[in-house]
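Page 42, continued from yesterday. The earlier attempt failed because a stray header line got pasted into the input along with the sequence. Redoing it now with the clean sequence only.
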Amino acid sequence: MSIFIITFVVCLIVTVGTVAMLMMSRTPRFRTDYSDIARVLDQAISGEINENEWHSVIGYPIRHDEYLESLRRRCQGIFDNHARPWQLAQGGALFSRAGREELNVLLGHLRARTGVAETRA
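This time it went through. Structure tokens are written below.
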């Protein structure tokens, strides 16, 4: 009977501790800023980005900046119309030439509006 009580108390302590830690901790937050979007667009234009990297930045809503959210939605539309993930698997670029040109226009607008410096050397 004493082994049962010890086991029950240990399990209860672990469970209560886990629940308390989960209730006190916050969910992680990633705040996308202008340089993150510029970096992703730059990599997409140069053909150096894969689909997972694209979706990790462009695939999530941006709630703190209306301009960035509209830009993200336009990028998502370009992805829907011009993405070629099958060619990426064969060593090609993620976007067609027309898609890369549209992304280049968006990157130009972003840099003109925010003054984000060009990252390519």
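Notes: Residues 2-24 form the longest helix (23 residues).
Reminder to self: strip header lines before submitting.
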